[in-house]
Amino acid sequence: MRSLQADRVKREFRKILRKLPILVRAEWKTLFPVSIGAVIYTFGVMSFTVPFRFPDSGVTGISVLLNYQLGISLPLMVSVANIVLLAWAWRELSARVVFWTIYGVLLVTVLMHLMEGAPFPNTDQKLLIALMGGAIKGYGSGVVFRSGGSLGGIDIVILYLQKKYGVEIGKYSFYFNLCILGASVFVVGAENAMFGLMGVYTSSLAIDNAISSFEKRRLIFVITNDPQAVIDYISSTLRRGTTVISAHGGYSGSDRPMVMCVLTKRQSVDLKRHLSETQPKAFMVLSDASEVLGRGFKSWRV
User: CA 40, CA 42: separation in Å to the nearest integer?
Assistant: First the structure.
């Protein structure tokens, strides 16, 4: 009986090994940003938070307070706390998100060990340190979020809320962390707690900006007497698709097709320049699209 079970395990393991190259090719674009984001975030914690006894956010924040108060190993506390949350996340989030979260947590834990005693800015400008640390940690977390993973802790809960309710990650992360910052007053003092609050607020802004800066596109509508020329330019030169919408002029009363497309900011500038040179009487509307899903833009896979 045991031999049959062992053979079954071996067969499943071989299947995973055969699929591994396919998985690596499919996910290599995620590996780099998650790794870079984890490095940036850990650097912010170990060089801009711990040396100055600032409180932090999420599970890391709780672990930092326990490290200050009881001397418990920071990487150990981060690992233990994340095990419980990952067990819950396995039921609530996709397997892909959980996998990249596990990878992010393990990488951050290892990096915290490696960066213990890392150099930190030698300055008494605590406000500057708090703001810089918040920006660094927020940007690192935002890069990871944008790639579909997380660095564990409360980030897992926020990622679930974003998936289910579409909440802004940075904003709700800030609300959750107010409770942790309140408790930190009794450990690091009121002054450092206020500096920590500034850092966490900066971090929440940096997270949202890091995510939106990669995903923002321009939604464009063009009304012109020669829509086909616009369609040809967008298709052949900008390599983007278009949608033609039937429109009716409210003043002129004439039927006129309207060209709709989604472009990057750089492409929208190219289109605007092209229209100014070839069709100066065209009517063009540009607006920001905070997120675009589909072929040529962000993947539906989360």
Answer: 6
